[in-house]
Amino acid sequence: LTEESILERVRRQVVIPRGSGVIVGMGDDCAVFRTPGAKQDLLFTTDLLVEGIHFERTMHSPAAVGHKALARGLSDIAAMGGEPRFCLVSLALPEWAGAPWVDRFYAGLLKIAAATRTVVAGGDLSRAPALTCDIVVAGAAPIGSAIRRDNARVGDSIYVSGRLGGSALGLKTRRGRAWKKHVWPEPRLALGAYLRKKLHATAAMDLSDGLSLDLRRLAIASKVAAEIDAPPVFPGATLDEALHGGEDYELLFTVAAGTRVPPHFEDLPLTRIGIVRRGKTGMVLLSGQPLMPLGYDHFRRP
Amino acid sequence: LTEESILERVRRQVVIPRGSGVIVGMGDDCAVFRTPGAKQDLLFTTDLLVEGIHFERTMHSPAAVGHKALARGLSDIAAMGGEPRFCLVSLALPEWAGAPWVDRFYAGLLKIAAATRTVVAGGDLSRAPALTCDIVVAGAAPIGSAIRRDNARVGDSIYVSGRLGGSALGLKTRRGRAWKKHVWPEPRLALGAYLRKKLHATAAMDLSDGLSLDLRRLAIASKVAAEIDAPPVFPGATLDEALHGGEDYELLFTVAAGTRVPPHFEDLPLTRIGIVRRGKTGMVLLSGQPLMPLGYDHFRRP
A18, A57, A124: best mutation site toward chain B, by most B Cβ within 10 Å? Predict the structure, then answer.
């Protein structure tokens, strides 16, 4: 049982009728929905955050949990080049999470919501044995312009933003800039809009489960292979952390060969790490050797 | 700590800027979002279903859990007179829920999805200590036509569909039609569309937590009081179960005085149970006596 195998079983059974308005269904960072007459497509993503799985109450402050719950969804919107519009927050609370915890959780969530102009438009509340938050974020992009992950073409250049492995390092050391990167991830919304509008990226996704696994997902969706060199490593992190560590929330993207990509976007380095190749679908080569998809899968490492 | 008090604390902090597209935010059955140029408003609702809270794995089959997870959201869409469009399914699985459980869960969910033309457009998967499902359902209604719960006016007649208390009775007896009503609730989508298009209902909501609590919520949202007689009782149920029992998923609605409401819609009885009054906001009188809001609140009865 892996996350992919479960989703693949469901995907095979789902029918998307013509005229349903669903332009992109399961398998991308966001679903894309088109309303008759609308000038923009709407993007939707949903992300679970579960105590003991995604965070520990002893380690992560309530405000940080609220921040990350929304940041994860915003990162998916960024990956498609969307602008956030609103979110819905479902929160299942165990006995230990009283009014003060909930207030601080929402303080963290509302702060990043305000900073990104995301309206908290509704949600649901329940009891639960472990604290569970599920957030839906809705975004918008001009009709047909959302950057998908299934459109990388042979010969495209592969890029990442930032330096990888910081979140994994932070989770281990719990201090410094790496810890900050782990606890307060910044969704790359401005970069995503730039990839859509200026660089006309052919494909993009956010790095939530580690480059090795996420690049494989992008390659599978696009029915291509990929060849890369070592990605830029976060100061102090190992190459393993950069390749397989989760929760960096940087963007992985491809552009047509010959596209001029500046070395930085604002303060963020943009680094060419490789090229899209013909080959076994989903195969990723690192310095010529097969790279195992050892990134984070809830179901392989429970 | 009650569900209302938590949501009220959040609601007070949420700002909905002009031009955000969010027409209805927290506090109704669905959030309502308007895209520039679109001919329809979009409705969004999110509902948690938690093992040990909303269902027991020993009592509810996986297909029934899948059915109910989606039916609850569809019922919110029905309450606003919307047509379903798509849903996103977040599923957090404990170790005991393997591939067979997940397959049967999706069989139940995909069956009601197909019957109601709801496209499963995405979702998320995680591990969790207790099985938790959060579903977002999106629906649509012509611009400005969604039936809200904050628009009941003094003098309006109050109606309910069906007979109440069946789900509470079924949960107790676990047999017969009441059990079926509890396990396989039918969202009143056709009725909701009829209330919007033909009866021009002034307000509506679905009965998920019991008439006493839900009518109070409608009255508070509309800043009115209500006076009712005993509602129609599901065969075999008690008046208490009809007044306070949750999960009937019938519709509660108000219409302007003088509106002709037929005694049935298809096979479903429509019963006038009272009238909207001036008075203490949220106060509900049953046969002249205050009716306590004893319906289901996760946080009052954990």
Answer: A124
Asked if the Cβ–Cβ distance from B127 to A36 is below 8 Å, we say: no
Tens digit of each residue's pLDDT (9 = 90 or more) over A183-217 = 999 999 999 999 999 999 999 999 999 999 999 99
> Is 0.90 topped by the overall pTM?
yes
DSSP β-bridge partners for residue B164: B233
- Mark yes or no for CB contact B121/A26 under 8 Å: yes
CB-based contacts of A226: which residues, under 8 Å, 6+ apart?
Answer: A158, A215, A218, A219, A274, A275, A276, A277, A283, A284, A285
Residue B302, pLDDT score: 36
ipTM confidence: 0.94
Q: With an 8 Å Cβ cutoff, are A31 and B121 in contact?
A: yes
> Whose structure tokens read 């992190």?
A237
Which chain B residues are Cβ-neighbours of A94 within 8 angstroms? Answer: none
Written as one string, the DSSP assignment of A46-98 is: EEEEEBTTTB-TTTS-HHHHHHHHHHHHHHHHHHTT-EEEEEEEEEEE-TT--
Length in residues, chain B: 302
Q: Which chain A residues are Cβ-neighbours of B98 within 8 angstroms?
A: 1
Residue B261, H or E segment: none
